[in-house]
Specification:
With 302 residues, the chain is mainly alpha-helical. It has helices at residues 2-17, 27-51, 56-79, 83-96, 99-112, 119-130, 147-150, 192-227, 235-277, and strands at 282-290, 293-301.
Length: 302
């Protein structure tokens, strides 16, 4: 009995001292792992679609999809521990915004498959996410802890030493330029009232011209009516003659006055433009009395 106990103890010690042989996944495990990976990919795809929306309800649904993808990938890795599952799980963490866990996943993939198909991409993501580790926490959900897949968290990369500051000589102070008195500039509003007056005069001329055309048509209508009349003229015909002559006189006077006002308005507007463009230009308008009326004498220098 004593010899048997010694033999059993030696066998147990050898078993504990010998490294545990890696268990080869069975075909059933591989089929189950493949199904879990497909489910995880489908869940991540739906999560990406929901996350792209601005709707808060859909964004919450996206986080639930990402959580389902993480759990499926972890179960698949427990059955078949292969590097591609590690990389895809890190992608889910990155989509969730778990920067620290995603960084650990890409780093773990590089340890397992330094020459893998996605090694260059993993190296780029490790470098990019390393710059975002400061202040990046970890979620409170213990089910999402990737330690069973990624292993313990490695030490974060040390920040590069700051480059020494090079003392530079102060830039020479430029000599102050002497202040010169600004040249007299023409007032930007000079000539404004001349332009306004020209526009108003031209508009009034257009109205007068329109009235002249109207009286001219009245005179023409009266003349046509009398020309077509047969028989002796009545008192109404004579009054029509008087109205036609009066309308003709008004038409001529208003047409001439309207045309003159349009020309004068254009001249005033032009003088206003010249006055505003040149400071030495000057225009003065003086009302004058004329036989039988009044006028406006305009004097300018350019």
């Amino acid at each position: 009995m004593r010899g048997l106990a010694i033999a059993i103890g030696a066998a147990v010690a050898l078993a504990l001292a010998a490294p545990a042989a890696a268990k080869e996944p069975s075909k059933r495990d591989r089929r189950r792992a493949a199904q879990l990976v497909r489910d995880a990919r489908r869940a991540k795809k739906m999560g990406d679609r929901y996350a792209a929306s601005r709707n808060r309800r859909l964004k919450k649904r996206a986080m639930r999809r990402y959580r389902a993808a993480v759990l499926a990938y972890k179960k698949a890795y427990a059955l078949v521990p292969e590097p591609p599952i590690v990389f895809e799980l890190a992608e889910v963490y990155e989509a969730r915004g778990d920067v620290r866990w995603a960084w650990r996943g890409y780093a773990r993939y590089l340890e397992l498959a330094p020459d893998g198909d996605r090694a260059p991409e993993a190296a780029e993501r490790v470098e990019r996410l390393a710059a975002q580790l400061d202040g990046a926490g970890e979620p409170d959900d213990p089910d999402l802890d990737p330690t069973d897949v990624f292993g313990p968290e490695p030490e974060p990369p040390a920040a590069p030493d700051p480059e020494p500051e090079v003392a530079t000589a102060p830039a020479p102070i430029a000599a102050a330029r002497p202040q010169t008195a600004p040249a007299d500039r023409p007032a930007p509003r000079r000539g404004r009232w001349l332009r306004y007056g020209g526009i108003g005069t031209a508009i009034a001329g257009g109205l007068l011209l329109g009235l002249g055309v109207k009286y001219g048509r009245d005179a023409a209508a009266a003349s046509d009516a009398l020309s077509a009349k047969e028989g002796p003229w009545t008192e109404e015909d004579r009054r029509r003659i008087d109205r036609g002559e009066s309308a003709e006189t008004k038409a001529i006077a208003l047409s001439v006055a309207g045309a003159a006002a349009i020309v004068a308005g254009g001249a005033l507007y032009y003088l206003g433009l010249r006055t505003g463009a040149r400071g030495d230009a000057g225009v003065s308008a003086v009302p004058t009395a004329l036989p039988g009326g009044a006028g406006l004498a305009v004097e300018g220098r350019f």
